[in-house]
């Protein structure tokens, strides 16, 4: 079984997860594992260049694989990750088009996929962190939902921190939750130390050798959001430096390019 404390158990790759993969192969599920690997590579390609079609195709492929293996935590984890990022992609495109309500039904799909992971692995820190952000997105769309989803955000964030204090993706997501959920300088000052901690954890993780199915996403976006946090706090040079760090990790990082454009526009407005 995949363990939620991936970084704490093994900085390179968790022993429990390796055991799961070996048992899957020995149990005659190699074809299913190949399907999952292919879909994960499709997700990674879509994530790298931020392509909605590739993310959608990966979600469909992982959904089919999960239906064949309903108790496979690895497959369900990657389905949840893909649905989460497809939600972010569609939300971004909808907001760019001035239609913040049209997320293509992805909010419910992402939430359902994440909740399925927690039924299989209740202590998965990344999943708790992603669920907290999904709840925050729902509150943003309909503020009245804060009455019942606000406590869920706090609860998932607390569990994410408890189960994944050294997981870079978990800490990055917690930081983004503060940055997106709290306005202005106050939210940025809360988020920044958490995001900087995530940056250090990502750097440590990158030093190890990793399996093809090991989680390996978020580093570039974490750096870009550090840039946004610095920008909100009025530190333009640091903001620009971190956006360029993000582009060094992933030259196709659209989030970093967008933040750099915003910095240029803000700079021009003050000239």
How confident is the prediction overall: mean pLDDT? 86
Number of helices: 13
SSE order in H/E notation? Answer: HHHHHHHHHHHHH
Evaluate the radius of gyration.
18 Å
Name the CATH architecture.
Alpha Horseshoe
Count every beta strand, where a strand is a DSSP E run of 2 or more residues.
0
Low-confidence stretches: 3-31
| Class by SSE composition | mainly alpha
Name the CATH superfamily assignment.
Tetratricopeptide repeat domain
Shape: globular
Keywords:
single chain, about 270 residues, mainly alpha, Serine Threonine Protein Phosphatase 5, Tetratricopeptide repeat
Overview of the molecule:
By secondary structure, the chain is an all-alpha fold. It has a single domain (6-217), classed as Tetratricopeptide repeat domain (Serine Threonine Protein Phosphatase 5, Tetratricopeptide repeat, Alpha Horseshoe). Helix content is 77%, strand content 0%. It has helices at residues 6-9, 15-26, 30-49, 52-68, 73-96, 106-120, 125-141, 146-163, 168-181, 184-206, 219-232, 236-249, 254-269. The longest helix has 24 residues, at 73-96. The chain is globular. The model is unreliable at 3-31 (pLDDT under 50).
């Amino acid at each position: 079984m995949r363990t939620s404390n991936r970084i704490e158990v093994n900085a390179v790759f968790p022993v429990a997860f390796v055991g799961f993969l070996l048992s899957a192969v020995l149990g005659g599920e190699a074809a299913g594992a190949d399907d999952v690997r292919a879909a994960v590579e499709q997700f990674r390609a879509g994530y790298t260049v931020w392509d909605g079609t590739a993310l959608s195709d990966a979600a469909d492929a992982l959904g089919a694989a999960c239906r064949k293996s309903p108790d496979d935590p690895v497959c369900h984890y990657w389905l949840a990750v893909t649905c989460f990022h497809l939600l972010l992609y569609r939300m971004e495109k909808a907001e760019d088009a001035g239609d913040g309500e049209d997320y293509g039904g992805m909010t419910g799909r992402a939430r359902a996929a994440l909740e399925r992971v927690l039924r299989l692995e209740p202590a998965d820190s990344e999943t708790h962190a992603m669920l907290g952000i999904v709840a925050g997105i729902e509150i943003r769309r309909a503020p009245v939902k804060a009455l019942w989803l606000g406590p869920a955000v706090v609860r998932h964030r607390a569990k994410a921190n408890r189960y994944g204090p050294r997981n870079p993706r978990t800490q990055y997501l917690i930081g983004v939750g503060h940055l997106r959920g709290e306005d202005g300088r106050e939210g940025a000052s809360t988020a920044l130390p958490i995001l900087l901690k995530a940056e250090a954890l990502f750097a440590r993780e990158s030093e190890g050798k990793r399996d093809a199915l090991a989680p390996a996403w978020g580093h570039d976006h974490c750096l870009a959001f550090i840039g946004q946090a610095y920008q909100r706090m009025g530190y333009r040079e640091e903001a620009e430096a971190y956006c360029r760090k993000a582009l060094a990790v992933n030259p196709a990082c659209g989030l970093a390019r967008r933040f750099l454009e915003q910095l240029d526009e803000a700079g021009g407005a003050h000239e």
